[in-house]
Structures are given as C-alpha cells and as structure tokens.
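User: What would this chain look like folded?
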Amino acid sequence: MEDRTPVISFRDADIFNGENCVIYGLDMDVYPGDFVYIVGKVGTGKTSIIRTIIAENPLVKGEGQVCGYDLRTIRAKEIPYLRRKLGVVFQDFQLLMDRTVEENLAFVLRATGWKEGTGSDRRINDVLEAVGMANKAHRMPHQLSGGEQQRIAIARSILNSPEVIIADEPTGNLDPETADGIMQLLRSINSEKGTAVVMVTHNMNICQKYKGRLLICKDEGCTEKTDDEVIDISFGNLDINI
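Assistant: Here's the prediction, encoded as structure tokens.
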C-alpha cells in the first residue's frame, strides 16, 4: 500500500524571517514522491519556508512536522539528525573550493557519522555515477562548469538517501540548456527513487515544462494552485498566466 504519511506537514503555521512574519497560517503537505514548486516575488517568504523546514528558522506558531520531527519541540542536538534526512541544494553550489569533488563528498559523510572503511568510497562513487560525474571525482570545483558544480551539489544532497530534496533556486545561476539538464536530473531522482522534491524557483518556464504541484507565496500567504485555477503571477518584468 502506498505510504500517504506526509514527509513535510504544516498546519496554521506562521513563517518568520527574523522578527518579521512573512507568511501567516501556512497549510502544506508534501508526500513521498511529490515534486513541489514554491514560487512568488522576492520577499514573499519562499526561502523562509525552506529555512523553517530545515530548522534554521524556528517555528513559533502553528504545527510543523518534517521527516518525523516536530519543529515546535525539536532540540538543538536533534537538528543534525533531521538534516540527515534532507538533501539541500543551493543556488550558489556551496562547495568547499579547497578540496576535490571526492573530498567534498567525503567531508559530508564524515560529518553525518560515516566512518572510514564502512563503504563511504562506494557511496561516493554511486552518487557521482547517479549524476553523471563519476569521471570528475579528482577535479577541484574551480575546474568544473556551473552545471557540473550543481551536479556535484545534487550528488552531495543524495549521499544519505534523503526522504526529501530541498532545492533553493538550483537553476538560478545556470544558462537555460544547463538548467534543463539539472531539472531532468532532479526529476529522474524524484521518479526513480521516490524522493520528494521541494524547489523554490522564479523560472515559470521550468514549472510549465516539468509539471508538479505549485505553491504560490503572495500577500503574506502561501496557497496551492488547483487544477482549475488560472492565476496571474508577476515577478518583476515577467508576467505569465498558468
């Protein structure tokens, strides 16, 4: 039987950026295998939702559950264990520039409790193969293109077989062709592994080409677009009906 227990769930949750509430009364469920986009103008709370999911921003009102952890009661020492269940991909890659690709991934494994000789080398090879970068293991990040660096960042995010990949503008610094390759990679991980993906983006063309659920941050709220809705979203000079 298909598991319909959400991996992320919010009920009447207020989302803060610092001392300012940017989203009131968030209701949101993400299930295994979901592909969810969060869209909206700058400053509408998209990244604040991500920071709340990973327990970087505290949840002070409402209910929030992520991978079995209660965000209202989670203790500081539990946060690293929560984050092991999440894979996070950033717009600016956030690789360690003084270490090879292989060393970047090994650092993450050590930080999440893997010991030498416990299969870490095999795991690194497996994730690099999964993202098409097995032949780049000994390269330094500066020797890679932007798209290659993002593939390494995705490899890093799946090292611990996460229940959810959190992707904050993962194609924002990439040209359209390279961004398309990154989207195909994320969708393949989503479909083949059943890994849920929550992705913040400004690129509505991506949302149209690679269909998924669509959450729209607007007017201090965040609501899901239903199939029969036509919504006008304006991001600066980009106006599009979806």
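DSSP finds seven helices and twelve strands in the chain. If you want, I can go into more detail on any region.
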